[in-house]
Amino acid sequence: GRLYSKEDPLTILSSDTLKETLLNSSTAWLVQFYSSWCGHCIQYSTTWKALAGDIKDWEQAIRIGVLDCADEKNFDICKEFGIHFYPTFRYFKARSSTFDIGKAYKGPDRELQTVRQLMVNFLQNHTPEVWPPQCPPLEPSRSAEILSLVGQKADHYTAVIIEEEDSYIGREVMLDLMMYGGMTVKRTLNLDKAFLDRLGVSSVPAVYLLYPNGSHVLMDVKKSQRFFFSSYLKLLPGVHRKRGSSAQRVVVSGSKGQKPAEIWKDFDKSKVYMVDMESGLHYLLRVELASHQTLTGDELKTFKDFVTVVAKLFPGRQSVVKLLETLLEWLVSLPLEKIPYDAILDLVNNKMRIAGMFLSEQLQWVGCQGSQSELRGYPCSLWTLFHTLTVQAALRPDALANTGLEEDPLAVLQTMRRYIRTFFGCRECGEHFEEMAKESLQQVKTLDEAILWLWRKHNQVNNRLAGTLSEDPHSPKSQWPTPDLCPACHEEQKGLHVWNEERVLDFLKQHYGASNISPQYAMGYAGLEPLAGQSGKADERRRPPDQTDAPVLRLSPAVHAEVRADTQPKPKPSMTFLVLGFSSLDMSLCVLLYTLSCVFLMVVFFFFRMRSKRWKLKHSRLYV
Ligand SMILES: Cc1cc2nc3c(=O)[nH]c(=O)nc-3n(C[C@H](O)[C@H](O)[C@H](O)COP(=O)(O)OP(=O)(O)OC[C@H]3O[C@@H](n4cnc5c(N)ncnc54)[C@H](O)[C@@H]3O)c2cc1C
């Protein structure tokens, strides 16, 4: 295979596309001409992909491409560009109106940080005439200019990076934020002592933040590193990625049945919300799967395994777990090869009125709520559910005992993979996920590795989707957990951001652990009222905290009506008897048996009575 795929955050060029891409391009380019048989190119491909991912947000200023000179169809173009050795790196300026073979720009090494800094230098070498139109000016501002902004009101934040002359952090953060609205980043040098004293800056690099309302403060960032600065600025309320800012335009519509939402619900992003997972399960069981009339063969097996994993591992409320367990028992006890989905729906809707078993029919998103109806919601709840299941599998390794899945560290991931491939409504997502699974799932050997695998792959998806239309501008796709959630998860090595995976694992176990799942807003079993001890009160008509003019969310009754259309009326809670856990089904069976025995005894009684009467009559006639 080739070294790069369309999944990588870079552009794969060929003889057909190279010239037209470079000519009069609105961005500068750095192209690696490589050969897929060259060992060094193979070794270097990981660094190149990491670099492309690292500077993905710069793509309206400078982009990264690759061209494989070992591909027969590229022989001539590589000759024309004078490529003799591999890999060869060429820089191409933006808005170039004539053909040129690019500039070889060399640094002391090919380390990611060095190349990134060379890219910044190359950008700065553009004259104003050919400056990439979307690229912000990268020159430092004078201290007087910055001071003139302090205390002024504006319609955006201004972040001022104060740094040393040879530092790149300011320019890198400016480029990191160039696709974000609501924020302007400037840089200034630490040359003016009076200026630094005025802002209270004692060490550099530092970020001074000017708020839209005129207030200003020296930002307290945990680590003075590029990744921390950029992440903090991107996460400020009101700062959002400009929609459609990426070349990619993949849209995953949230889910059928999602309509505008009604009320913005305040939530804490360090928590997982039970109501998101319950809504996800409701949608999955009553809508997504219900489009399959009958389950048979592989579909049925996938469904059974899914129910097994969820019933055993979901750290949910008792009423939901009971429903899942009952569904599992029922599936296991039925040796059928084919099950009509209506029969499953009857159980999910608790037609038999079994006591204490209930899954709300409300679609309600809290941690997964989007600023528009088609954003977030169901796919977000699926990720949340599966992360929770991988964590539960590691925390409770015996939970899957006697299910046939107990020995397998991949049980949850394989079940997820098969569910996504077989049933998930977004086919393209399923195909992408399948590709990722094929590539590396077999390397997972322990339950902890399974947690980390899913985290890594989710981040890969986040990276691919950042800036596409399926990104909610109020919940930008970032590499997660962000430094505000887990500062210890982030480190920097040679200027490159790296994860501390040990810390990430601890964080994931805590974040998706049962004690971090908030029951807030979850609907009660009997009357859909908030659960005891919870306020459950949505902050009426509030907008997302960072929104100034965004549409108000509405959870329309139509959503519920549509989803409920096929479903049964809400189950009436049944009684339990003698505190022995008899359900109404048990009681109905008892009553039925009791009635049948009575009828049988009465029939026997009347039969013998008639017989004895007839016998008496016969004998009395004889005597007469
Ligand atoms: C298996 C799968 C594949 C998908 N593939 C595609 C696709 O190819 N194209 C497409 O357009 N959409 C795809 N989607 C949908 C997409 O990934 C998002 O779910 C959707 O855009 C909603 O995004 P979100 O902002 O709500 O955050 P999501 O990405 O859905 O994340 C939900 C929550 O999980 C947490 N989280 C984020 N990252 C991580 C992580 N790395 N580890 C653990 N927790 C994390 C955060 O709290 C976040 O709010 C896929 C969804 C799934 C379930």
TrEMBL record:
Coiled-coil features, chain-numbered ranges: none
Listed name of the protein: Sulfhydryl oxidase
Function description: Catalyzes the oxidation of sulfhydryl groups in peptide and protein thiols to disulfides with the reduction of oxygen to hydrogen peroxide.
Domain of life: Eukaryota
GO molecular function annotation: flavin-dependent sulfhydryl oxidase activity; protein disulfide isomerase activity
Any single biological process term in GO: protein folding
GO (cellular component) term, any one: extracellular space
Species per Swiss-Prot/TrEMBL record: Paramormyrops kingsleyae
Names of required cofactors: FAD
Transmembrane intervals: 577-608
Annotated CDD domains: PDI_a_QSOX
